[in-house]
Amino acid sequence: MANVRLASRADRAAVVDLVGKLLAELGGTPSPAEAMSPTFDFLAGGGDVGFVALGESDSRAVAVCTVSYLRAMRTRGKYAIIQEMYVEPEYRSTGVGMGVLKFALDYAVANGCQTVELGTPYHGDRQIQFYRRAGFTEVGARLRWRAGQ
User: Fold this and answer.
1) SS3 of 38, please?
2) How many whole angstroms separate alpha carbon 41 and alpha carbon 52?
3) Nearest-angstrom CA–CA distance, 11 and 54
4) I want to staple 127 with a disulfide (CB 3.0 to 4.6 A). Which of 27, 110, 117, 120 is the partner?
5) Distance between CA atoms of 2 and 7, rounded to whole angstroms?
6) Which pLDDT tens digit goes with each residue over 90-131?
7) CA–CA separation, 130 vs 116, rounded Å?
8) Are 69 and 117 contacting, i.e. CB atoms less than 8 angstroms apart?
9) Which segments of the chain have a pLDDT < 70?
10) CA–CA gap between residue 19 and residue 63 (Å, rounded)
11) H-helix or E-strand containing 21?
12) Which phi and psi angles does 66 have, rounded to 5°?
């Protein structure tokens, strides 16, 4: 059975590694650890910015969910966005991913969020089914704009 907990700053290397694997699996280029580390420190520092949930098996980090808090009028205040969610391939369909997700949802609600949003990759049918099982519903496409493109 997996252990799920909030990540601490001591978990930086493991979380950065898992997020790097996620980015590579999605076909992107992982950012260098030194570029991702300040954001991890920001989220893992507690407070009202977000958090990182970590799933472990045999004391090894095997799943991660990073969450940011935002505010919007449409959500009547504070809400959460799951920014990154990753489970090591050999631990998929074992329940650890759902455990990390449920922990993240419960923690967000306990911290004043009534809405949690996320995006999935193109052709993310497996991911969409996973999130539907957790109670998510589809509400539209997620788009991105970047300066300098």
Assistant:
1) helix
2) 10
3) 9
4) 120
5) 14
6) 999 999 999 999 999 999 999 999 999 999 988 888 999 999
7) 15
8) no
9) 1
10) 9
11) helix 12-25
12) -100, 140
Query: Model's pTM, two decimal places?
Result: 0.93
DSSP calls for 67-92: EEEEEETTTTEEEEEEEEEEE-GGGT
Q: Cα separation of 113 and 107, whole Å?
A: 9
Considering Cα of 124, then 129, then 134, then 136, what sign does the dihedral take? Answer: positive
* Token digits of residue 123: 């052709």
> Rounded to an integer, what distance in angstroms lies between the CA atom of residue 19 and that of residue 110?
25
**CA dist., res. 23 & res. 64, Å (int):** 13
Contacts of 35-44 with CB under 8 Å at 24 or more apart are: 37/12, 40/7, 40/9, 40/12, 40/15, 40/16, 40/66, 41/9, 41/12, 43/67, 43/68, 44/6, 44/7, 44/8, 44/9, 44/11, 44/12, 44/15
Q: Which of 79, 60, 77, 58 is nearest to 68 (CA)?
A: 79
